[in-house]
Amino acid sequence: MGQNSWSTRQLAAELALSQANIVRSLALLELPESIQEQVEQGNLAPSVAYEVSKIEDRRLQEEIGRQAGLERMTAVKVKEAVERVKSPRPRPRRLEYRDPNGCMVYVTVPEGMDDDDAISALGRAAKHLRKERASRPEAAQDAA
């Protein structure tokens, strides 16, 4: 490819293969050597190794590739494992309250915390706000 400056599409046409086969085969060449050896020895199906190639972290590639070979996992099972590894962490919930007076309050509730935790945090925030308001010089004048 590099020598002829071909794209995967051009290479596929020249070899009478599908472009998808070319892309998958090239992905296997980017895998750690230990996984490539498993494929060569028949311990890991190329389709399984291709699913492993979708993981960016080489350490995780080796770990999942080794596990897939030992457990004779199917491509479908490996794909599920890869998706679990790749899936973004759950995002915290963001709650919003719009008061009729125009004030807005936002609360971010991290995963694993519930509404009671948010309510407790709001109580502490209100206490903190009252304390700050009392310490401002204009608050002392308003009280007088």
Structural notes for this entry:
This protein is mainly alpha-helical and 144 residues long. The chain has two domains: 31-86, no CATH class; 93-143, no CATH class. The chain has helices spanning 8-15, 19-29, 33-40, 46-52, 58-71, 75-86, 115-135, 137-143; strands at 93-98, 104-109. The chain has a two-stranded antiparallel sheet with strand order 1-2. Strand 1 and strand 2 (104-109) form a beta hairpin. Helix 1 crosses helix 2, helix 2 packs across helix 4 (46-52) and helix 4 (46-52) runs parallel beside helix 6. The longest helix has 21 residues, at 115-135.
* Spatial strand order of the main sheet: 1-2
Low-confidence stretches: none
Q: What share of residues are in beta strands?
A: 5-15%
Succession of helices and strands: HHHHHHEEHH
The number of E-state strands comes to 2
Structural class: mainly alpha
Number of helices: 8
Which percent bin holds the helix content? 55-70%
Mean pLDDT: 88
Return the domain count: 2
What is the C-alpha radius of gyration, as a whole number of Å?
A: 28 Å
Assign an overall shape.
elongated
For the terminal residues, how far apart are their CA atoms? 83 Å
Task: Outline the biggest β-sheet.
Answer: 2 strands, antiparallel
